[in-house]
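Subject: Sanity check before I submit

Could someone independently write out the structure tokens for this chain? I want to compare against mine line by line before I put it in a report. The sequence has 257 residues.
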Amino acid sequence: MKFPKSLVAIALLALSSISSAADKITIAAAADLKFAMEEIVTVFKQANPAAEVETIYGSSGKFHTQIQQGAPFDLYFSADIKYPQMLAKEGFAASEVKPYAFGRIVLWSASRDASKMTIADLADPAIAKIAIANPKHAPYGKRAEEALHSAGIWEKVEPRLVMGENIAQTAQYVQTGNADIGIIALALALNKELASKGNYALIPDNLHQPLEQGFIVTKLAADNVLAKKFAAYMGSPDARRVMVRYGFILPGEMPTK
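---
Independent answer below. Compare away.
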């Protein structure tokens, strides 16, 4: 039995589309992952040369809302595990919520020696602008706010705060001189670009709630083999080494003070 050429062409096009979709994923990732995730994706693609991986970085809270509204993300890496947990409860996940790291916050400056500072030093009125991420939707900003409250200096610094939409923009404010100092992610401060222009001091973990981070495969990617493959790869020795190098504390491990 012969099939019309038009039907054969349609079938081949459909198979091509399925194959193309299976070889592509879009990742929504918290901005603190920018440098670590870029390295992880690079190595992953070396082992999977046909894979097309697009990564979009931004605020965890905003991604949470966008996924609820149908944004086409296959994986969602949040700087606060509560966001993917909420999505899972609401039926937007095709996997369990997987903890992948604990983040750290630091003081970082390109114009001052932040390595010799503590968070209490931010009360100094000579520091005109202090950058933090917006606590309303950025987990690192929320932890910065908590730390400033714990240190008893929130009221003194609040009028001088410059808020970034996410932690990467917050670091950019400090890097470009739009803020004198910022509270940013250790993972960003360790990147060679920032490390060559400034220095940092860790903010004690006991001043804020843990920055437990987690990810999900979204409901959209329930049948996407590549998405599940990448999710599994995050637990590989290669991916774990990259995360540790950028200052992330892996689940079950003790932080280095």
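---
OP: Matches mine. For the report I'm noting this point. The chain has two domains: 5-102+211-245, 103-207.
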